[in-house]
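Below is how a single chain appears once it has passed through the pipeline. First comes the sequence as given, then the structure the pipeline wrote out for it. We keep one example in the README because the format questions we get most often are answered faster by looking than by reading.
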Amino acid sequence: MVCTHAKYDQLIARCAGLPPTPTAVAHPCDESSLKGVVEAAQLGLLTPLLVGPRARIEGVAKQFGLDISRYELIDAPHSEASAKEAVRLVREGRAEMLMKGSLHTDELMSAVVARETGLRTARRISHCFIMDVPSLDQAIIITDAAVNLFPTLEDKVHIIQNAIELAHALGKAQPKVAILSAMETVNPKVPSTIEAGALCKMADRGQITGGILDGPLALDNAISPVAAQIKKIDSPVAGRADILVVPDLEAGNMLAKSLSFLAEADAAGIVLGARVPIILTSRADSVMSRLASCAVAVLVAKARRESAGKAIG
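Resulting structure:
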């Protein structure tokens, strides 16, 4: 199977002509994190504010031949301080996006969720993978596979709304949302099926807006029209899902990694529900995944600016 990254190329192309988005990058102190920032900046996706130990960042840049001379470098003594300082830059309005460098995710998210000094909103913070699966015609969103361990029904309302608004930013006016379980019928012995039914009814009542929900759906009949037809599922979502909502982090993590390692998919990642989009990459991510994550965040930041402008107008 040949991976062309056509879906990610389209995302990056949608950012062409947009001004680079100011981005606070927390602790980019290894080759992969600093190189990803430089490449995204060279593509015009972002203007980085590099936050971390000056000597270490400059040493990595010199070692791997990365030109960071045009970027502002804010000195911070260690990873925890880097996270706090990057968050402060966002709070002060100097950055519209936050990006993880080589520090642990927990360190960055601890600064993000700090009650007095962080980036909390009324919305639950959640993670989305935007998967480029070669066998599918379009990128597909999986949530939540990285932040919320065992989300409650209330958490899932926020998780779904975050994912729907992400889909809007990526150009899907009415995304189709599949609430996944092991089966497509409500079974009192399987809690995820009951939650799926409740979430769909909440959407019917306007408690979740902007998308079309259905569930429970098994994975096959969520993404395969043939499987949905065989099961005789009459639904606008079955076989056509844009968003896959998993029961918990374990299921989501296994689904995303199965697609990556068995179906040769790439996974761009973003955290939503905070004041700004957060680019959450892994050291194992490909260059294309890193760039796609940046492009997704740029489109989310653009959508937020437009929404704020409409609210003011």
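The longest strand covers residues 46-52.

See the next section for the split statistics.
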